Structures
1.
Amino acid sequence: MFSRIKKTYREYKELKYLAYHDSLTGLLNRNWLYENINQIKTRYVYFIDINDLHKVNENGHSFGDEYIKKAIGTIKHRGIFLRYAGDEFILFSDYKNEITTNEYYSVGISMVSGCLIKAINLADAEMIKSKLIWKSKNVK
């Protein structure tokens, strides 16, 4: 009986991990964000989007998966880092200028002053501006 309870608990822990973590990167995911949004205390929100992933995926999605892992592997951070959507990531940090746009990804940053959702949306809008600037410099 005890071994069955132990097995059930292990399975529960595994399912909970899978529910709140991205299977490709191991990072926290959007489910975790919305479950914990009211507990997140941070000064800055970084919204990160992988550059040119669609071009990489033309060689196959497994290449895209490896590109995503390589790109996020370059991000050194101090804070809560999560995969928000396909090629979009969010970093909650108390440090300004933690990461900046480069050849792998475009970044938007916003300072949190009240509603975290508004800060996320503002960082997303800033990332879009950053991506447009990056694209204009890297047109081939």
Note: Residues 116-137 form the longest helix (22 residues).
2.
Amino acid sequence: MVKLQKSVDKRNALIKATIELVNNNGFHATPMSKIAKMAHVSPATIYLYFENKQDLVNKTYIDVKTAYTNYAFANYNEDMSVKEGFEFIWKRIADFKLNECEHAMFLAQCDNSPMIDEQSRKEGIKHLQPLLDLWERGKKEGVIKPMSDYLLYAYAINPLSFLMMSEKRGAIKLDQSQIENAYQAAWSSIKIAPI
């Protein structure tokens, strides 16, 4: 049991080091040797858990995406109206991005990197299924604009990454009223306006 825990601890240390180094240096300036050093393991140890750097980054992406979506959908109830459900999920995502900055920054880097392979991207999208299902229901009920999920995500969720990065740089301090304004803008961008 102790050996298993040590194994889990080493893998977690490698994941944590990967996130920190990628956030600070980017993917290409993060060699395996630096990851091993920061995780306090020998470089050979990495290969007990991961095939190569690409595998390490992709598995880190899936781990972080899982934590992100588990947080976003915790206590979400599919019986909520589309508007209530979207507000609940959106505010959970905002909370995650603002309070779990390191993880959110890593995901933002992954969104724009060829390091993440197509299989991992598809796996990551599966984790968003409750939100995609909510949007599908919203489209059927005539509440959500009949746009692709990618456009809905780009308009409603992606701006949170911009706000998170702006706050991290010190350009803005997000308080509750600004979060509420951002939510209202997100909702307005995807809902069908009454005629």
Note: The chain has a mean pLDDT of 92.
